[in-house]
What we know:
Helix content is 47%, strand content 8%. It contains 16 helices and 9 strands.
Amino acid sequence: MSENEIRVTVSKFADRPCFVMRYTDPVTGKRHSRSTDAKTRREAERAAAKWEAELQEGRYQTSSNISWQEFRERYEGEKLASLAKSTADSAATALNHLERLINPKNLIVLTPTILSKFQAKMRLEGMRETTIATHLRHLRAAISWGVSMELLPKVPDFHMPKRARGRTLMRGRPITTEEFERMLAAVSKVRPGDAATWVHYLNGLWLSGLRLEESTVLSWDEDSPIMVDLSGRCPRMRIYAEAEKGHQDRLLPMTPDFAKFLLQSPRAERTGLVFKIVGHYTHEQMTPPRIGRIISEIGKRAGVVVRKSEGKFASAHDLRRSFGTRWAPRVKPVTLQLLMRHRSIETTLKYYVAQDADEIADELWKDFSEEPSAKAAEDQDLPPKG
């Protein structure tokens, strides 16, 4: 009998004339019991078998006993199909990990205990806590949908991993101009056949702040998900909801340096994709994952390490981080939030507004006509510059 099925057993207690039958609810873990009204074990077992059949043919048979495969097919077809492709792919990855590590036969087996084992197995494979948390969030969303469809009575408890105390929010870090120049110099070592294309592309990422997936669909054409719009006073970007992480149509200003970079393209070439990254063998636009791997390889060849403890080299997202840190001291937080397209201003503040203390000090003192000496600073209770 499957561990998630109801099994009714019989017992005899000295203080009761009749046998008692009982079972444990596979969802809640609660025990239920009732009298069999039978004084012989044979009659009691018949009564228990009848009750067990009624329970199995009731709500557990029609809802909680749905197979995992049937549940997944319904979830993908009825829910994930309506979401952004990146979200659906990420959810599918989480479900694939669950099948590989736990291999559930039925939806009901996903109890807090099983979910805890799933988390432990992912950790044993070396997954980051943030990755584990992402997979668990997708799984919780899937089960919550199942509850809304009355396939389960409730969502089991999820014990989400806690972020290690003192750990930075960023997996990488912004890279410096000198490091970026080293990456440009390393391009020819990784892509000798189309180095100019990749140098142009890296410069575009550096100046735009675009996410990797966004950069691969940025186009001059009006019907594209993300297009360069030259119809306003200044160049801007039009992003449609299906191509944007926040799932909103947006018309966004463009930084002057990126606009100047784009306008270097001759008018006759302002058609189709802005960044045409074509594979050597396929002769088609590369997929974002493939492009991301090549950028990381360029970062590795350039020796730009962004997370020493993990041996992580500069990636496309580190170029986006660099865009944010370069503009943070030049614009207001709300403007930076718009440029970065963060849903929450808290994300902008945590990631990009905090600056090096020396840079802040330089900004504070740059407009003073006199630089206070250490003695004058001491007399006035002011800190000496430097």
